[in-house]
Amino acid sequence: MTSELRRLPDGFGRLWTAQTVSSLGDGVIHAALPLIALTLTRDPLALAVVTAAGTLPWLLFGVLGGALVDRWDRRRTMWVTDALRAALLAIPVTAAAFDMLSIALLAAVAFLLGLGGLFFDTAATAYLPDLLGREPALLERANSRLRGTQTAASGFAGPPAGSALLALGRAVPLLADAVSFAVSALLVRSLPAVPRPVPRARESLLRQARAGASYVFRDRLLLGLALRPAVGNVAFLAVETVLALFAHDRLGIGTLGFGLLLTAEATGGLLGAATASFLGRRLGTGTALTCTAAIEGLAVLGLAAAPNPYVAGLALAVCGAGMGATMVLAPSLRQTIVPPELMGRVASTSRMLAMCAAPFGAFLGGWLATAYDVRTPLYTAAGLLLAMTAVTATMTSNRRVEAALRAVAPAAGEPATAGEPAREGALDAS
User: How many CB atoms lie within 10 A of CB 240?
Assistant: First the structure.
């Protein structure tokens, strides 16, 4: 074990294990759910309903969920949420056993799992900097490890397992995901408690939610970090909605091959997560984020034009590498510069922007495939990603990143407070 890894507290190992186990279950269901839906319908718009349902909770409850997480004990929020998600999956497991599955039921389950994901992911994002003392280098290493193992589990091991388990019966991958949630809940429950930030004044839930959203929209760096996944989700959900159909009809890939295709993306994600810190040091975090955005757009363009499964797999691997690096660098930066008492609200607001865009992307992909061709959503997604790269490049530049880091780590060693004028001025000056 390296000296860097020893610096991480004992509780991080349990959090790491819990998220890895849960991610393995997510990977199983990620491959199995669209394939289960394909056994019920071949209508692209019906498939889009299932895909979009899992993202709707962020549209409806995103900011309020963040405000609740800032009020609640974050560790308890995580383990209770995963326990409830494990219990929820008993419903589709039973329905599958009695051949009563439907698109409506799959969409309802996807919605409730997404609601649980809202609370779990927001609480986990806010809990990590408290556990690690908000040290930037330590957060980056921790996020790299979390992202790497989550990618390996959800993308590399999970999809082939999901495809294989589906061959045993439609209930089997659903049951596997339920077990992963139960194990995660037990592990998270054993994590150490950390002090909750004390709010400056008692405010209504709506006012607290509004303050968190306002903090993101007034800060050009945080807004840029939020806009990129928002536009990206329109593109990626448009691709994801038709990917199973594209793989089957255009690339001639069967059930097992589809799982392997998703594995290619995960392989690239592992490489991206592993090299994120190196890219940040050599290029600066802002420039590295711009480069990874451009890589994602070009990779999706290559996927759209792919003549065979091998080129498609290579394109997805390159796209995964860009996404993997981004999902280490961006959260680490946000966790460093956002005050603890706002972390849940800022994280949920940023994620809400991304997830609110996702249903639009899902329906856009389904409509374009229905009205034109199954490749059309992929070309459209590539154009959106490349346009987003140009728009957010200045918002997340090295100059802005360095100014924000200086503002939260002044010479006296005291963290900047929420809404500190010096920080706003530093950002606006760039």
Answer: 22
CA distances, 218 to each of 179, 210, 222, 312 (Å)? 42, 12, 8, 40
User: Which stretches of 305-430 are DSSP H helices?
Assistant: 309-337, 343-371, 376-392, 398-408, 421-428
Sign of the Cα torsion 274, 280, 286, 290 reads negative
Render pLDDT for 363-372 as a digit per residue (tens, 0 to 9): 899 899 988 9
Total count of residues recorded for the chain = 430
129 alpha carbon, distance to own chain's centre: 17
- The residue type found at 142 is A
45-91: pLDDT as tens digits: 787 788 778 778 877 887 888 888 888 888 999 999 999 999 999 99
Among candidates 351, 366, 251, which has minimal Cα distance to 311? 251
The answer to whether position 71 is within a domain reads: yes
> Could you give the CA distance from residue 339 to residue 299 in angstroms, rounded to a whole number?
36
Q: Which helix (H) or strand (E) holds 116?
A: helix 103-132
Question: Among residues 106, 124, 122, 110, which one has the least CA distance to residue 55?
Answer: 110
- Tokens 């691709």 -> residue: 239
Q: Range of 379's domain?
A: 3-187+204-428
**What CATH number does residue 104 fall under?**
1.20.1250.20
> Which structure tokens are listed for 228?
């990129």
- Phi/psi of residue 202, nearest 5 degrees: -75, 120
